[in-house]
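=== Structure Prediction Worksheet ===
Name of assembly: unnamed complex
Input type: mixed (protein and possibly other molecules)
Chain count: two
Listed entries:
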Amino acid sequence: MAISTATKAATDALAANRAPVSVNAQEVHRWLQSFTWDFEKNRTKYPTKYKMANDTKEQFKLIAKEYARMESVKDERQFGSLQDVLARVDAAKRVHPKWNETMKLVSNFLEVGEYNAIAATGMLWDSATAPEQKNGYLAQTLDEIRHTNQCGYVNYYFSKNGQDPAGHNDARRTRTIGPLWKGMKRVFSDGFISGDAVECSINLQLVGEACFTNPLIVAVTEWAAANGDEITPTVFLSIETDELRHMANGYQTVVSIANDEAASKYLNTDLNNAFWTQQKYFTPVLGMAFEYGSHFKVEPWVKTWNRWVYEDWGGIWIGRLGKYGVQSPASLRDAKKDAYWAHHDLFLIAYALWPTGFFRLTLPTAEEAEWFEANYPGWHEHYGKIYEEWRARGCEDPNSGFIPLMWFIENNHPIYIDRVSQVPFCPSLCKGASTLRVHELNGKKHSFSDDWGERMWLSEPERYECQNIFEQYEGRELSEVIAELHGVRSDGKTLIAQPHTDKDGKLWTLDDIKKLNCVFADPLKSL
Amino acid sequence: MSKSSNAYGAGIMAKNGKAFSDEYFAEENQVFHESNEVVLVLKKSDEINVIVDEYLLGDHADENPTLVVEDRAGYWWLKATGKIEVDCAEVAEILGKNFSVYDFLVDVSSTIGRAYTLGDTFTITSELMGLDTKLKDLQS
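=== Predicted Assembly ===
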């Protein structure tokens, strides 16, 4: 058959100049830049008060092919490990029972953060006008989808292969009962996707990812390994291999606005608000998860925080930007106080409210109490004695008729919820940077725990209207709320949450809770 | 334990109890202090273990004597003053197989500092890339 003139021309040309069998990815990246990408005049649905520059770079020179190849290798390694060797050595059953409970909380709550980050980075993709910056945000959107699946898979893997699956297997419907849920939604959802697009980037990328993913996703793997958990390091360190690009996206967002006059007016306030928003929740919750949710301790949480947050994020990211007018957040002093004490304050409340959880908590043992006192001088006098009293009253035993929430009421230590962060606090007991202040707006009272959240509320009160758990459940009996929100195991009566991890210990049931006649009351009503 | 100021347990981290809290709460430590260091977290793997042993702590150990590498269970924690660089073309020769900078990124778990790629090279630097120093593209 005769070939066409065009085909012959192409064949002759290829004979003279052989086509390359492959092209270097970075050459493709350079070639892509030769196209006329012009997004400068694009309208966005998500405007920002800052002007983002049109020539911002993406630091890793990603192209779709290499991105997809890289991510598939990561998944092959991760799922290969989980489904092969870790299944064969029964890794999920080797995890210390306390840490097994901690991962119910950590992986499920991180899943929510990753899910909201999908929307956040989609929004940033729409807002940016620099082609490379858009490319970086787009890859991040895909990463966040991967991470959401990975976090869900950790809970699935633990529930399928591990011990005491209740909580791992149905966290999505039981996680909303307790007081930790709404704070997590504030930091992981509202902080990432509400308001000015660049402010969201500062919350998500510059603070959430560049700062707090290091303790949350990196340091946590060391605690996991120390407590027999090889599953979490396998997945979380793989998640974090995408986070470095997200940190770079956050840095490049700052680069893109560095020469905008608005930056000098707004950036330090936005950074302070983002830092406080993120630390207000992450600092106490992570510290509590690490220290009170582990049997084997790696180091005091305050040291972990000091390394990753204060010295490295503070010095290497924020400190280096000083000559561009970026300052230490004004809230840093209070954040440091929180890093030392707030997780102890939070555990006191979390343990008091243990029936509302979807995981089991345990009181510190005598050996752990010694560790706490050695690393946090004054811990025993303030917290340790309270735990001794609770234990003496039989708080772990359903026959005792005592949950520690009753102790708070008997001793007139009301628990409030900070309206902005939704983090619970007890002003008469806390040693972190929380003090009670109350405002009234349109006939409704709002409690706050700190200057920084109070300021945010005063400038945008309509943004912080979320009901807290005391308002939501006011007048309702505790066991009724737990039953309604599915906080029970498959027998329909035994609570998922328990105040111990002793496999021989008695488990509390809805009937045990009902006998206590605990009724939710809004403490603000009595002020 | 390493005596380098870049070590995981250096400075205030070597202190405990009241000695730690006194320095932690000291007035001069209530603001951030600019740091010229960089931190790299490498997920342990077949290739990364070779890169750490034979490249960073092997042939290239003299290039940056401030580099500290510590074993933190599932990952290697690296800290250095100035920058850390990995030439993946050279790593490919050590490994005896193709190994691009994107293969390296498969196991880079975290960075504190400005990390970027150019050709076969991965760099993390304390320089403010995009502000003080222009980010370059591959030249033809």
